[in-house]
Voltage-gated potassium channel
Amino acid sequence: MKLTKRKLAHIVFESNDRPSRTFDVVLLILIFGSVIVAVLDSVTELKEEYGRLFFTLELIFTFLFTIEYVLRVWLTSKTFRYVSSFYGIVDLLAILPVYLSFFVANVQLLTVVRALRLLRVIRILKLGRYLAEADFIRRSLKASMTKIQIFLFTVLTIVLIMGTLMYLIEGPAAGFTSIPRAMYWAIVTLTTVGFGDITPQTPLGQFVASLIMLMGYAIIAVPTGIVSSEMAKQKSPEFHATSKTCTYCGQDGLDKDAKFCKNCGHPVDIKP
Amino acid sequence: MKLTKRKLAHIVFESNDRPSRTFDVVLLILIFGSVIVAVLDSVTELKEEYGRLFFTLELIFTFLFTIEYVLRVWLTSKTFRYVSSFYGIVDLLAILPVYLSFFVANVQLLTVVRALRLLRVIRILKLGRYLAEADFIRRSLKASMTKIQIFLFTVLTIVLIMGTLMYLIEGPAAGFTSIPRAMYWAIVTLTTVGFGDITPQTPLGQFVASLIMLMGYAIIAVPTGIVSSEMAKQKSPEFHATSKTCTYCGQDGLDKDAKFCKNCGHPVDIKP
Amino acid sequence: MKLTKRKLAHIVFESNDRPSRTFDVVLLILIFGSVIVAVLDSVTELKEEYGRLFFTLELIFTFLFTIEYVLRVWLTSKTFRYVSSFYGIVDLLAILPVYLSFFVANVQLLTVVRALRLLRVIRILKLGRYLAEADFIRRSLKASMTKIQIFLFTVLTIVLIMGTLMYLIEGPAAGFTSIPRAMYWAIVTLTTVGFGDITPQTPLGQFVASLIMLMGYAIIAVPTGIVSSEMAKQKSPEFHATSKTCTYCGQDGLDKDAKFCKNCGHPVDIKP
Amino acid sequence: MKLTKRKLAHIVFESNDRPSRTFDVVLLILIFGSVIVAVLDSVTELKEEYGRLFFTLELIFTFLFTIEYVLRVWLTSKTFRYVSSFYGIVDLLAILPVYLSFFVANVQLLTVVRALRLLRVIRILKLGRYLAEADFIRRSLKASMTKIQIFLFTVLTIVLIMGTLMYLIEGPAAGFTSIPRAMYWAIVTLTTVGFGDITPQTPLGQFVASLIMLMGYAIIAVPTGIVSSEMAKQKSPEFHATSKTCTYCGQDGLDKDAKFCKNCGHPVDIKP
């Protein structure tokens, strides 16, 4: 089998046959590898011992990612559209750090740019797009989005009012040094995270905090209720299989108790 | 187009055409602006540097809110009813702080009064009244209200009994200095916030605390369950508007894209 | 209207007409009053200032509760059954502390006995028995009870295994001084309370703790799911009203789309 | 009744008649007893006082478990399959520690091996296999497994990106000494555990932390929604056994107490 440019493009950009899926899996392993090296490199003890190994691996990953980037630029029919797209920029950022390190001395900046490589992990999630299950979660969340936005806006208003109230009650002595900081505390409390780095000290402050916590107790039910009822509404993939298709006009998604097609009025044959 | 008093009143009080919606949006920006300035003004570092700018902005906001308040009082046909209403008082409180600052020296009191301006944010939420989605959440919560009240009452009884128990077990040494404080701890624990400012030290106290936490684990399911089942029961706006009924056989719950009844095959009349 | 013994018994034990409901409300106020006094009496600053007032109120409450107890013993036809019942013992414990204080010097013990008066609050919850909404929550929880017990048992097994694991990994240095204490930490973590009084210090401990937390994330969904699905299954009071009753045999709870009674086969008349 | 080898095997391996259920219950008590002794033995104060008692009990438990193990090996028809199975290895590990203690001096290692005895608790859960309710939870979780895996993968990606972000913003000064440690903090925060051992100190860090917490607020709804909707879909055991189908018109989903079909009025045949 001769490897034409067209076949190569298919391997790089599609994922519906064996060679293109192999390409995707190899790429996934490389991305995971580079992310793990970056994570381990941030641990001081490991960097001291394996710093040279990490740097060598970094060079290898950069080399392979550079080949991949060049391939993508060369193979795509719409070069500019790919280069200026989100994935195009992320792919470029994935290979820049090492090349920049030859010119720039500021190591801290390089770490920041290098961390951007983590965004490539999103490419992994893209694979999940074809999974019916992932799609189910995505559809449920998308359908709930407006409700969740309204909910978050209401939560932020409560946080603003409660934060200001606690700032006035407790004041700087208890760590409520400013309204933004008091709002940070209100979010920590309302979401039931409760770090405990800032806590109310006065009896009145503890009373108001108790009210906020009980409010959070009732409020946490809302997003859960929204998503649950959306998920119950969303037809799951299995369920689809039990819906009927009209043999006359091809309309699908008919209810399973339908006797006539809702589109053309033709009687629906009952499945054996 | 001449701007009559009636047209102006329409712009100020309604929000169903272009000029009145523009008025609402400008008002929203002003309210957000004044809230953001108040929030930033509470940060000591920012106040030291931009204190004068914040004060000037405060004056401008107060001037504009004063015009708005005068307009509302002048335009409404029921002056007393507006002035004595919740929104009327909040609107007045929004402009008072600066005027009071010319007479009162107590700055702390002014901050408190000024913070009340935050209540104007609720006016923003009023806009959401017409959003079907927000209405859906509101109806679900309202329908669950009795159940949530009973639930909160039960929680408070548990908090009272458990707080007293922990006060007797742990005592002042571990921070449980009084029953109210022990009840504050019980709320912090039962809501799974867990600040960690007060924690049981004795083995018996830790055992009872474990029971409270496992109880909270089972209890947190109740409000969620209540709201979820209410939301599932509440028909969402789309569903309301779209389900059709067959005029021939009376079969209801037909899909909105149905042209023929799935029960009898009769064409479904499209609603006007 | 003459107050016979029978009428008095009706007032004290029932709650279905005006005088007996008045009796219940007065009793509720007294119970709440005595609980609030006991709570406030535990605050050192308040006790120092209002100690005498609290003691006088305590005497008054004890006097009134004594009358109530004597009334109940005198009026009931089954004296022994009441005295030995749960409520009978709680009612007796409510009046004992003051009488004991004349004989016993150990104040700490008295506080414990006095705290038992809080159990009378449960009597308040008894009133809720007739509320349809409270009954709905109770039925849902009762129906879920077996599932929640199995769930709690599984959670305790996870706590036991994870606690032992963390005890072996972290050891006394990080606060995991014994397996019971490590189990306490595991409960604090799994229920997402997270006090932070004991936290893993080693990288391995933090890794295992992360696993426990993510597990808790998935596990917290189970009781919520159980209660939610039970509540969705439980027919709410409103729903009952839409079910039909057969006019022929009196069978109720028929589905609203029923054309024939499922008990006697008689056609069901559609409600006007 | 003579006790043949076959009868004994039935008692040891089955649990469907009285003697075999008695055997299971005795075994359960022994397992619980040995676990409780191991747990209490880890408390320094208790070990000092009751160390000898604990050791004696340990010997007795080991002796009884040894008999049980020998019985199982002798009675099973597939000896190798049992010895090499998960339960076979766990049963062997349950008796090893004491025997090893005669040869090995390393006490720490012995504690680790001994802790493995806790795995025997899983045998207890096996009993629950026949409980319809436990099976209901298991089926619901199994059906949700794919969705929960995708969900956990998404959470881990968020943890990776947010951890790196916080590591760059806060740095070692606030406790974010490495990316793995920052990821540990992100998990602690996203799951709303919130130990408070590491907390953001800079305003920017607190802002990003607030975003993570609000995200966690919305995200926690997802697994709950998944499990809830699965549980609602799963038919509970009662429902399964009881819904009838009309043999005349084919209408299904009839109530279990229905004598006549609600659709056609035909008598419903009671299932044998």
